[in-house]
Write a structure and sequence with these properties.
By secondary structure, this protein is an alpha/beta fold. 25% of the residues lie in helices and 23% in strands. The protein is globular.
């Protein structure tokens, strides 16, 4: 994979493919291996990316909400709403081959990788994009982005003073303009969506078609599902 740099690698060229598997796979694996959800997903992604034939670990921008009050006693986010998005690069690796490797070693590697950035990576962008314009960190950056969005639930109503999604929410789409250049070869967004049949782990793989071809990304998506379902014992 190459890092997108050409002027033609824009949002308008992004193709998305979606893969689904049982909604409890992340919580089951996290509990079984004493790992966080991000470590479970990073481990699975590292294994899935082996189908692209990387020369070694792939650098992944791990995105999270940034609401890390546990980092200090003086951090109080009670008056804030929404995400304080944080990106920090971590390595993802796997074991090439047709067989799905054991989960324990893969999750141990991913758990260490997630824990490595100081302060959960909150200072990374300050080093790469400081106010004075002189980056403390150089290089092309990560080729892949991974974003764990958690669980989304559609409330049945507002009884008891609860929240309800606005009826017009399906008509509102907020995102980058079509001519904005993409920053990653592959963007992986993961969430658990509640459906009438039960929760589903839904993963969207987005890629600019000038960087990765559809067949390669579809193979990554298929391997992702195979790895997670095998690890959890559903295959």
């Amino acid at each position: 994979m190459r890092h997108p740099r050409g002027g033609g690698d824009t949002r308008a060229t992004v193709r998305e493919t979606t893969a689904s598997c049982p909604g409890d796979v992340v919580t089951v694996l996290a509990r079984r291996h004493r790992a966080g959800a991000e470590a479970v997903l990073l481990a699975a992604l590292g294994e899935a990316l082996t189908v692209t034939g990387p020369d070694g670990p792939v650098l992944v921008d791990l995105e999270h909400h940034g609401r890390a009050e546990e980092l200090g006693p003086d951090i109080d986010l009670v008056r804030t709403v929404g995400c304080l998005t944080v990106l920090a690069p971590v390595p993802a690796s796997g074991t090439p081959g047709p067989e799905v490797p054991a989960a324990a070693a893969a999750l141990a590697r991913a758990r260490d990788a997630v824990a490595a950035p100081p302060g959960r990576g909150l200072g990374w962008d300050l080093l790469r994009y400081p106010a004075d314009g002189t980056p403390r960190v150089t290089g092309p950056g990560a080729e892949v982005a991974l974003n764990w969005l958690g669980r989304t639930t559609r409330p049945a109503g507002t009884a008891g003073g609860g929240w309800e999604l606005a009826p017009e929410q399906d008509a509102v789409r907020v995102g980058p303009a079509p001519d904005v250049r993409v920053g990653h070869s592959l963007v992986v967004d993961v969430l658990v969506r509640d459906t009438a049949e039960g929760p589903v782990l839904e993963t969207t793989f987005g890629h600019p078609t000038g960087v990765l071809d559809a067949r390669t990304v579809d193979r990554v998506a298929a391997r992702w599902v195979e790895v997670l379902t095998t690890w959890v014992g559903r295959r």
